[in-house]
């Protein structure tokens, strides 16, 4: 019988020697295996566990609730954000009002790349948007995550090295194993109908699509923000405002700007 992975998180109330050993011994007596242990945010400790059945976890929870030295804050089947929290020692932050939006700052590029790589490994269609100001690391993170996930990336539109606006793919590039990268601003400003037809074809593929500047992208397509599975926001620091007025002035200055962001 296959074991199920669970996430246990607790806050230490009385930090005395031997506490972790007591919890580890308890898990051993219940035949629950420890996969990984690490500190997570706000003085809490997280564990990934393997259990044969739910009854083991129920018994564990009841016993832990009697311990005065800790308070259990989470015990559930593990999620992607739980695994990343234990791996990196901190949580990814979700928007309180829109749970599909996750937020990172530039100092967290490592966890961002790891998060995106895990999404890339999932099969089937997935539409990911990424917001951020120029030179904050959006495109580099997308490419680095592709490398981590052992996936090939294809620029459908981009300004990473030189301006790219593609209107067709060759036969091998239609693979669902590829990561398709689209820059919403480049497509809106520079593309023709053949380019948009290519994007429609790509959207039909059971593959990962990553769109930089998704808010601009949806202005020129039949898609809307609700169609995105994840929206990633990347900032230089927590206080930075993402505004397309700066994007207009720094990347696409000239007579074809986005007046709606003035």
Task: Explain briefly what this protein structure is.
Helix content is 32%, strand content 27%. By secondary structure, it is an alpha/beta fold.
What does this structure look like?
By secondary structure, the chain is of the alpha/beta class. The protein has helices at residues 19-29, 54-64, 80-88, 109-120, 138-148, 184-190, 193-203, 214-217, 244-251; strands spanning 4-12, 33-40, 44-51, 70-77, 93-94, 101-105, 126-132, 153-155, 157-158, 164-165, 179-183, 208-212, 230-235. The strands form three sheets. Strands 5-6-13-7-12-11-8 form a seven-stranded mixed sheet. The protein has a four-stranded antiparallel sheet with strand order 2-3-1-4, with helices on both faces. A two-stranded antiparallel sheet has the order 9-10. The longest helix is centred in the middle third of the chain and has 12 residues, at 109-120.
Number of strands: 13
Question: Tell me, what's the shape?
Answer: elongated
Largest sheet: spatial strand order: 5-6-13-7-12-11-8
Classify the secondary structure makeup into a structural class.
alpha/beta
Radius of gyration: 22 Å
Give the mean pLDDT: 88
Could you tell me the strand content as a percent range?
Answer: 25-35%
Poorly predicted spans: 250-262
Helix coverage percent: 25-40%
Number of helices: 9
What's the N-to-C terminus distance? 60 Å
- Spell out the helices and strands N to C: EHEEHEHEEHEHEEEEHHEHEH
Largest sheet: 7 strands, mixed
In quaternary terms, these chains amount to single chain
């Amino acid at each position: 019988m296959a074991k199920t992975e669970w996430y246990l998180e607790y806050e230490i109330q009385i930090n005395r020697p031997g506490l972790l050993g007591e919890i580890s011994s308890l898990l051993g007596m219940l035949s629950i295996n420890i996969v990984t242990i690490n500190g997570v945010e706000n003085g809490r400790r997280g564990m990934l566990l393997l259990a044969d059945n739910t009854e083991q976890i129920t018994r564990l929870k009841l016993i832990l609730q009697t311990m005065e030295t800790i308070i259990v804050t989470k015990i559930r089947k593990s999620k992607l954000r739980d695994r990343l929290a234990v791996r990196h020692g901190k949580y990814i932050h979700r928007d309180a009002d829109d749970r599909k939006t996750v937020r990172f700052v530039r100092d967290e590029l490592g966890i961002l790349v790891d998060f995106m790589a895990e999404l890339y490994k999932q099969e089937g269609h997935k539409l990911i948007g990424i917001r951020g100001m120029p030179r904050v690391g959006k495109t580099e993170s997308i490419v680095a995550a592709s490398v981590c996930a052992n996936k090939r990336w294809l620029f459908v539109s981009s300004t990473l090295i030189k301006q790219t606006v593609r209107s067709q793919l060759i036969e091998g590039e239609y693979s669902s194993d590829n990561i398709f990268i689209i820059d919403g601003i480049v497509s809106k400003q520079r593309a023709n109908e053949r380019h948009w037809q290519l994007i429609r074809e790509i959207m039909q593929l059971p593959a990962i699509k990553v769109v930089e500047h998704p808010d601009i992208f949806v202005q020129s397509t039949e898609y809307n923000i609700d169609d995105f599975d994840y929206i990633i926001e990347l900032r230089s620091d927590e206080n930075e405002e993402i505004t397309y007025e700066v994007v207009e002035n720094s990347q696409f200055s000239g007579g074809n700007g986005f007046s709606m962001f003035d």
